[in-house]
Design a protein that fits this description.
Elements lengths: L1 E7 L2 E8 L2 E5 L1 E5 L11 H6 L5 E4 H6 L3 H6 L3 H5 L5 E4 L2 H6 L4 E4 L2 E5 L6 E4 L1 H11 L3 E3 L11 H26 L10 E6 L5 H12 L5 E4 L8 H11 L9 E3 L5 H9 L4 E3 L2 H7 L2 E4 L2 E4 L26 H9 L3 H27 L3 H13 L3
Parallel strand pairs: 4-5, 4-14, 5-6, 6-10, 10-11, 11-12, 12-13, 13-14
Antiparallel strand pairs: 1-2, 2-3, 7-8, 8-9, 15-16
Helix pairs in contact: 6-7, 7-8, 10-14, 11-13, 12-13, 13-14
Length: about 375
């Protein structure tokens, strides 16, 4: 259940109430694709750095270790020792990323495993069954994500099929939730709005899926080829047509600036691999912008990544030390930077919520963007 606590223009401040706890929104979901954050960060660490909700990948977990294995072990929460909410994506994005080795048909998608080349089929029912086996808090509907730009006629047909798939997802998750041996009988379903960069297709699709009274609504198919301005335009056009009493999730986005812009337009949920991926490659986020710790100027820098940061990394280690670890190819370097970056994102969301609560979000956003844009 989503509880809207405050609304200022399009900006929303809410609570998402789930069987695994209450999530304060806007929120950033920390991405643990294979039930782990890349960079040697544990679920114990996630609690220490303020993670409210974790995201895992349906497709990848169905291959390794297998959703049936996770089910046998009590579900994903027990498997990875995480008692807070988990959202699992549907496998739909893998349909997009595996474009060269897939065949999309009405029943679902045929493709080959990226691990061993074995043949795989996934459709709406299969995605729901895998996610039910995982026992996640929120299951995402199976959809097709198209590259931007794509021909309008293709996008129209794709969106119609995604709608038909969504109806099948809803029927199947309702069936699975009614089964006596289902791990999470209160598993929620989020639908996904698609339509590329075409306003009319996006709006019509938003109207159709809004009538289905789902637990939440995502905006997918962005940050896949279009400009930031195009993405912001789509958000402005589409969000007014999605239910305002349900959470709104912008999938796979993004940079800190993207998040501020999207919050201003009414988005509640975010996820992105950027903080962990950048951290593993020595790039860390600060209030003044992103820096690369491999730069020579940090060789003798005994200051933390950020002086005012309370993450475990900044409270204990210097830029010079972390740079040394990267140069020495010690995995601790990645861990320390991923910890810092995820803390930065989680803390950013906390500051955003405080700014909305305190009625100063516009000035907060302006100050942040000015700092990041003016960084030399």
């Amino acid at each position: 259940m989503y509880k809207l606590l405050k609304k200022c223009g399009s900006i929303r401040r809410g609570e998402f109430i789930t069987p695994h706890g209450v999530v304060q929104t806007p929120v950033f979901m920390n991405v643990g694709t294979l039930a782990a954050i890349k960079g040697a960060v544990s679920t114990v660490d996630l609690k220490k750095i303020g993670c409210q909700i974790e995201l895992s990948n349906t497709y990848h977990l169905s291959l390794r270790p297998g959703d049936e294995v996770i089910r046998e072990l009590g579900g994903l929460h027990k498997f990875m020792n995480w008692d807070r909410p988990i959202l699992t994506d549907s496998g739909g994005f893998q349909v997009f990323s595996l474009a060269d080795i897939r065949k999309i048909k009405e029943e679902g998608v045929y493709f080959n495993s990226h691990i061993d080349g074995s043949k795989i089929f996934m459709g709406p029912e299969e995605s729901m069954r895998i996610q039910s086996n995982l026992g996640s808090t929120v299951a995402m509907a199976f959809d097709e994500c198209v590259k931007n730009p794509s021909p309008k006629d293709y996008v129209e047909n794709s969106v119609k099929r995604t709608t038909r798939w969504l109806k099948r997802c809803k029927v199947e998750i309702d069936r699975l939730n009614s089964m006596p041996d289902t791990i999470n009988k209160k598993q929620m379903l989020f639908g996904i709005n698609q339509g590329g960069v075409y306003d009319d297709i996006r709006i019509e699709h938003a109207k159709i899926i809004s009538e289905m009274d789902l637990d939440g609504y995502a905006i997918g198919g962005l940050a896949v080829g279009e400009t930031h301005q195009e993405m912001y335009r789509i958000l402005e056009r589409v969000i007014p047509y999605l239910p305002q009493n349900k959470p709104i999730y912008l999938m796979g986005v993004g940079t800190p600036a993207n998040i501020l812009e999207a919050v201003e337009r009414g988005v509640d949920f975010f996820d992105c691999v950027l903080p962990a991926r950048n951290g593993r490659h020595s790039h860390v986020f600060t209030s003044e912008g992103e820096i690369n710790l491999l730069n020579a100027k940090y060789k003798l820098d005994d200051s933390p990544i950020e002086h005012e940061c309370n993450c475990p990394t900044c409270k204990n280690y210097s830029r010079a030390y972390i740079r040394h670890l990267f140069k020495a190819k010690e995995m601790l370097a990645m861990r320390l930077c991923v910890l810092h970056n995820l803390y930065f994102y989680n803390n950013l969301m906390g500051e955003i919520r405080d700014a909305i609560d305190g009625d100063y979000f516009p000035s907060y956003k302006r100050e942040k963007l000015d700092k990041w844009n003016n960084k030399s």
